[in-house]
Structure formats: structure tokens, C-alpha cells
Amino acid sequence: MRQFMALSKRNIHIYFRDFSTVFFSVLSTLIVIALMLFFLGDLNNEAILQVVKGTPGRDAARDNKLVSEIIFYWTVAGILAINAASVAHAFYANMIKDRGSNKLNSIMVMPIKRSIIVSSYVFCAWFISVIMGVFAFAITDVIAAIKGYAILSAADHLKVIALIFVNAFVYSAILLFLATVNKSENGWGAFGIVIGTVAGFFGGIYLAIGGLNDTIVKVIKCFPFIYATSAFRSVMLKDVEDVFFTGLPSEARSTTDLAMGTKLTLFENELSQPAEIGILVMVGLVFMVLCSVVLTYSKRKDR
User: Fold this and answer.
1) Whole-prediction pTM value?
2) How far is the CA of 99 from the CAs of 104, 175, 214, in angstroms?
3) Is 157 exposed, middle or buried, given 0-12, 13-18 or 19+ CB atoms closer than 10 A?
4) Measured on CA atoms in the order 215, 217, 218, 220, is the torsion positive or negative?
5) pLDDT digits (tens, 9 = 90+) for 145-160
6) Do residues 98 and 131 touch, judged by C-beta distance below 8 A?
7) What are the angstrom distances between the C-alpha of 80 and each of 135, 160, 230, 286?
8) What is the pLDDT of residues 72-96, one digit of tens each?
């Protein structure tokens, strides 16, 4: 435990000591929020409004506001899901620098288990990603209040924060694995350009998966990103969808949820939220094991 705490303290200190890294982590979060909410947020409004089109007794103005609120929280869920990827990427840049300056090799020759080294890096990336995730969540709460949307309940806030914890762990483990197989600072920097786009696409964030063909959807479901996005959306959209779909057949809601990626099916069965979280945790643990293996063998090659 003492070794773990010493390594973690060192890694976190190095990250926060680099002002530019912290600044750009915050800036990237704000840019993603701005792009998603102010430029991409209205893309799916019309598709949802078609669900209630022609239904007698509906208030068109109220429906428009509810749909805007649905799309807002649908988008926020995506932001929270991919935010951890960019933050973890920025954190692991320090690990790449350690490798280039042979500091990582110095750590590896110390009498410290590989699992402790891996756990320390994952913990630090997780810790920083959680901080940035909660920060992004707070910003979107302010935006929701300004727009006049219903604020999530205290219970839903706790659920979302718990999901931020899980999501940060998964991205921290995956990005650490990618960092361990990458030895170039330039390569890692270039990878950062595409990580948000890749995570966004495979997370069903930029486009609703209902608009993609079945083959692409099956490929997307082979990656963990879509399960994190769906878990966030299930929590954040529940209350506003309860209001919007009042008086409509249950099939209307289930069809819309599947098309928008709020609910997912796997092997023809609808996944529960605990099942999605279980998939995410399992993926994170698998990547931690892979990291330990890669670090062990890479150290032997570097001798």
C-alpha cells in the first residue's frame, strides 16, 4: 500500500504541476460541451417529434420543449461518456514521457509488483477523470437551469456520479493499455487527435445508432463505449421520457429508446443497466491484466 500511495502521489503531482496539461484538459471538456450542445444538439429533434405527430390532445409547444430537453440530456450523457477518454489520454502523456526519459524503466527495476504499478497509473487517471467528469456534469447542470429544463433529482445525480466513477475506470484501463504499447510522444499526441472521434462514434454519441445499418451496429456493440453511453442515458432520460411518452403505447418508447441508443440489445435480449455496468467493469479488469503483461514483457525487451 505504501508503494502504491507513493507512486500515485508522484503521478498526480506531475500531472497538476504541468499547467498546460491541466488547462487543455479543462478546455477540451468545455469545447466538447459547446460543440455537442450548441451545434449538434438539435439533430434528432424531428425524429422524436414524429413519434407523437398526429396524436390528438398533444400540446405542440410542450412537446417541442420536452423533446429539446430529451436531446439535451441525451447529448450530455454522451459528453460525460467520452470526456474520460480525452482526460485519461492527457494524463498518460506523462507516462510516455517517463518511458522516453527512462524514468519508467527506473520504476520497473524497483522491487514493486507490476500489478501495483498498473493499479497506480489507472487510479491516478481515474481520479483525475472523475474530477473532470464531475466538473463537466456541474457545467451541464448550470446550462440546464439556464435553458429552463428540469434538473435531475438528487438520487439521479448520485447515480450519474457513480457511472462517472465506472466510466472513468474503464477508459483509464483501456488508455493505459494503449499507452503501454506506444513508445513515441509524437505518436501519442497524434493518437489524441482521433481518440475523441473514435470514442464518440463507437459510443453512439454523434449519431443515433438507429440510423446505422445492422452490420455497423453489431461492430459498435463489440466495443465497450456504447454500453457506457447507454447507462448514462438510461438514468438521465428516465424522468423526462416518463412525461413525454405519457398516453402513448409502451412500444413507442421502447422503439425510440432502441433507436437512440438509450436501451441496447445483445443477442436479441434487452440489456439491463446492471448488465451494462458489469460489461464495463469486466472490460476494465481485462485491460488492467493486459497492461501488467505488456509492462512485464516490454521491460524484458528494454534491457
Assistant:
1) 0.87
2) 5, 15, 42
3) middle
4) positive
5) 988 899 999 999 999 9
6) no
7) 10, 9, 11, 23
8) 898 889 888 888 888 888 888 877 8
